[in-house]
């Protein structure tokens, strides 16, 4: 595991992080997105998903799963799952949503508000987004194969 801190001055920098991350994620990877409301978790997840879509022939709208809790995308041979657990009432609901199986399966999972999980994969990439000036600070903690490729974006 390796830590990396990036200053993201604007939405374009967040998109760049999402594009870079999307290129490095593999089936079975889980990304845990933490931060306050409005920190950019959904924005980053959207950039990751849309980058993968663009590589496979098209981009569609990627809404925040705030009310549905889970959105699933089939992109080529890969299933991507975007979950927003902010409104999760009880961790046992994860079983009903199928998220527990998805996390342990071959899908790429992007999970907002992961503190609502009973347990998270030990090898997950954890990204914390915090406001900093007019931008945000992204702190990444996870497998070196993911963080090393992102170091080129370091602005701090």
UniProtKB/TrEMBL annotation:
Gene3D superfamilies: P-loop containing nucleotide triphosphate hydrolases
This protein's UniProt keywords: ATP-binding, Cytoplasm, Magnesium, Metal-binding, Nucleotide-binding, tRNA processing
Gene Ontology biological-process annotations: tRNA threonylcarbamoyladenosine modification
Chief location of this protein within or outside the cell: cytoplasm
Domain of life: Bacteria
InterPro entries: P-loop_NTPase (IPR027417), T6A_TsaE (IPR003442)
Protein name: tRNA threonylcarbamoyladenosine biosynthesis protein TsaE
Family: Belongs to the TsaE family.
GO cellular component: cytoplasm
Subcellular location: Cytoplasm
GO MF, one example: ATP binding
